[in-house]
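# nightly structure sweep
# worker-07 picked up a monomer target from the shared queue
# config: single-sequence mode, recycle default, output format = structure tokens
# input follows
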Amino acid sequence: MVKLDRAASRLVKAVAVILAIACMNFVLIRMAPGDPVAVMAGEAAMTDQAYLDELRERFGLDRPVHEQLLVYLGNVATLDFGTSYRQGRPVADIILERLPATLVLTITAFVISLALGITAGVIAARRPGGWVDTVVSTLALAFYATPLFWVGLMAILLFSLELGWLPAFGMHGATPPAGGFAYTAEVARHLVLPAMTLGLFYTGVYARLTRAQMLEVQSQDFVRTARAKGLTEARVERAHVLRNALLPVVTMAGVQAGHLVGGTILVETVFAWPGIGRLAFNALLQRDYSVLLGVFLVTSTMVVVINLLTDLVYGLIDPRIRFER
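# output follows
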């Protein structure tokens, strides 16, 4: 019963956080410079006041801001994110079309960076100060310090234009296979460069953090006790050192999940990946604030859900803290 109460408490807090984020996003968007109605009227070459008033009334922009906020929150509660100013379509439909591409990209980059980072950190911590440790630490620092857009552009230049191994843009070719394995293989080929570019920075972060935590845990008394009991080095490393060293890494991974989602805006723009990051970038340029609000809300919800899952992973790694924090 206590576990259920705490789980329900976390769920209520998560909903409150999402509600606060929705309010903050709405206020910040309304404070942003630029009038979407003026932009639309200018592109349509219809600048008379009657047309401007008609557009404002159609999209509810003629009401006071607090009324617009209440209407927006009421619509969000029913999963109605409004209508795109530019496309005239429901924002929810537009986001649902783009969301799978972003999920494929972010999940692939997250798994790659976590697997490579933890593996590299463990290998480096086995011989601190050795040549392997030096190589891993140097590469991790380089990955951490290199800007994503530079990595993306160099990857396109080398692997697409120079070597011709991988496609540079899009999620598939102009005439993709109808489905099945051929379509999956086509998407996977296009996914390699953007996923590696997005995950490279986080690979460096996880490698450095795992190495530092492994070295710290190795000096603890309970590890020396485990070795004194005659356990093999592999058993000590896996069951005692790595398990305790992973807790800070999982914490960092949960926190940086939000950064990963934010990084998709840059990577999707560089590689023309048809996800919600590129959608947000285009919506910002076009002052399509309803789409922008929808993207912000969906990505914020994704980050909150990832942090909830991170709490659950804590319990799987160390049962002592399951539902105790």
